[in-house]
């Protein structure tokens, strides 16, 4: 079963393995399989579920809402996000303006079949809207009872500091950041994690297995597996290419197998357990196309990796690791 951690300096507890439906529900995975994956997550003790209005252009929220129907709402933590366009992409259909935030939260709640979300997250930083306007809108969402807490996603350390200060002045809590993080992609370690730890902000990390690369299924010099994410132009092939284009990365992932074997883990379980060794990480988001993937990945919960094995992982991956803090700033569009 899954362990639980506090989210930031708040009193909210979330499951350290969180189920997310980016790239799956409403797009890659048929509805019945998606429902089965959510039920497998519930059976494994996962209580935290992450989605976003933009995933499959709102369909992912609808599928999650249906999957969680009949569950005791107070026993769940439901997260969603706002920023990217979900309508006809008009001038106000994206970003973090007051208009877009207040309209988007109502749409998300309707699709998720709930009166509130536990965590409402800014999916990116909006350079086109004054931060004061954004945070005031989030304050009003919290005061209206439509969200209990506010988080962000892929914000830089300076952006998190500024947002946290405004949130405090406005009387609500900014408690989390949702960045990409894995043993191969560590750009948050240099600046974002130290700033967040100082402020009482946790990381809820996505892609802990590096879009599937850290499962070891992509072999150096071999054709890409049929039906894998790397072959799906609509399902993340572009993102995973940064690792697949480097055969030495794939070989180093294979070289991790003895470490996983020593811990009695699969490579995927090792990858999820690795991100959870970071004390500033509250949860690792896992996705799934089959229920058994959920059942397997939750076995990473509660695993402690000895320091000597963490050092060995660092030695094996070496200069294949992406760690430049500047990568975070690149994820937010300069205009919308």
TrEMBL record:
<dbReference type="GO" id="GO:0016491">
    <property type="term" value="F:oxidoreductase activity"/>
</dbReference>
<dbReference type="GO" id="GO:0005829">
    <property type="term" value="C:cytosol"/>
</dbReference>
<protein>
    <submittedName>
        <fullName>Aldo/keto reductase</fullName>
    </submittedName>
</protein>
<dbReference type="InterPro" id="IPR023210">
    <property type="entry name" value="NADP_OxRdtase_dom"/>
</dbReference>
<comment type="similarity">
    <text>Belongs to the shaker potassium channel beta subunit family.</text>
</comment>
<dbReference type="Pfam" id="PF00248">
    <property type="entry name" value="Aldo_ket_red"/>
</dbReference>
<dbReference type="InterPro" id="IPR036812">
    <property type="entry name" value="NAD(P)_OxRdtase_dom_sf"/>
</dbReference>
<keyword id="KW-0521">NADP</keyword>
<keyword id="KW-0560">Oxidoreductase</keyword>
<dbReference type="InterPro" id="IPR005399">
    <property type="entry name" value="K_chnl_volt-dep_bsu_KCNAB-rel"/>
</dbReference>
<feature type="domain" description="NADP-dependent oxidoreductase">
    <location>
        <begin position="16"/>
        <end position="316"/>
    </location>
</feature>
